[in-house]
């Protein structure tokens, strides 16, 4: 599988990142191990998680996904084969939230312990914290990089202005810069990335790893009416906003290109993202090993210029 450079970090990653938010939520530990084995066997070595996954589940406190990944890496002895990305900054309860240096210093140790590793390849600010000067946050990350606990840093859920500001501060102060940006971006949701944020990423050579790349499953084509919402726990929560004339137009466009390429709609939707020059790797997940084949197929699917343009038009 051909790898791509992630910003200027020196890390190279597969063209698709496997999202691990389902571990400990809709996928139990045994099934998670099977999924991770399949993913790694297929060359999808880039894993994305966060300390907060899956705190939203009743009875969970966060860290469930990291814990499963850590147990799996220890059992398999394969840490050196994995490019590991996690995040800090979302509310973990008890005032543990944000990007203050003392909190980052504690949170990274918690993540390292759960992941059973000495270092994190990509440590990301999960969301902006406007109450903390960006110089302080970047200086905290600088300490972690110098200590060998983190290889590179990234950001998620930042505005174009705040990302540019962070990049400027890093350059002016000799601090590490955000090498990646994680925005919501898909055929169904284009406005949060396209425009100002995309321009900042392109102008500064910042890698882009997109979340909700399949719009919570809508772009798989399995949700086409309200009666389909019960097909997954995410369905009823996220899909209704896509059930409109534009959403149906997008599915029709996906169906058309899927028929031409003999691929599944999900693979086409991911291949559309991979065809965007500024996107390094869309993040996508699976709950069963057989679904991993669709993700791998997406990395092998090259859409023609005409197909990309038709999908652009369908989702405009």
Automatic annotation (TrEMBL):
Cross-referenced InterPro entries: AKR, AKR_Detox_Biosynth, NAD(P)_OxRdtase_dom_sf, NADP_OxRdtase_dom
Limits of the NADP-dependent oxidoreductase domain: 15-314
Pfam families for this protein: Aldo_ket_red
Gene3D superfamilies: NADP-dependent oxidoreductase domain
Highest taxon of the lineage: Bacteria
Stored PANTHER family: NADH-SPECIFIC METHYLGLYOXAL REDUCTASE-RELATED, OXIDOREDUCTASE-RELATED
Protein name listed in UniProt: Aldo/keto reductase
């Amino acid at each position: 599988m051909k790898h791509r450079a992630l910003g200027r970090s020196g890390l190279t990653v597969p063209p698709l990142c496997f999202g691990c938010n389902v571990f400990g939520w809709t996928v139990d530990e045994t099934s998670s191990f099977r999924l991770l084995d399949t993913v790694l066997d297929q060359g999808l070595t880039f894993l994305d998680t966060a300390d907060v996954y899956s705190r939203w589940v009743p009875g969970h406190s966060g860290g469930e996904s990291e814990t499963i990944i850590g147990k799996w890496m220890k059992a398999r002895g394969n840490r050196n084969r994995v490019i590991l990305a996690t995040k800090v900054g979302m509310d973990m309860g008890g005032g543990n939230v944000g990007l203050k240096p003392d909190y980052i210093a504690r949170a990274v140790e918690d993540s390292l312990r759960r992941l059973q590793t000495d270092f994190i390849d990509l440590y990301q600010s999960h969301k902006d914290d406007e109450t903390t000067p960006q110089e302080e946050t970047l200086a905290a990350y600088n300490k972690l990089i110098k200590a060998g606990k983190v290889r590179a840093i990234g950001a998620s859920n930042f505005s174009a202005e705040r990302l540019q500001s962070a990049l400027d501060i890093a350059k002016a102060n000799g601090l590490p810069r955000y090498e990646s940006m994680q925005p919501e971006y898909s055929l169904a949701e284009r406005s949060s990335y396209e425009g100002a944020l995309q321009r900042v990423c392109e102008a500064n050579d910042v890698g882009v790893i997109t979340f909700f790349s399949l719009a919570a499953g809508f772009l798989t084509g399995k949700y086409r009416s309200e009666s389909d919402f019960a097909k997954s726990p995410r369905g009823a929560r996220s899909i209704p906003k896509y059930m409109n004339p534009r959403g149906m137009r997008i599915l029709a466009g996906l169906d058309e290109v899927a028929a031409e390429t003999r691929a599944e709609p999900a693979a086409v939707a991911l291949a559309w993202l991979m065809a965007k020059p500024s996107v390094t790797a869309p993040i996508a997940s699976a709950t069963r090993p057989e679904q991993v084949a669709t993700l791998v197929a997406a990395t092998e699917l090259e859409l023609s210029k005409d197909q990309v343009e038709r999908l652009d038009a369908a989702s405009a």
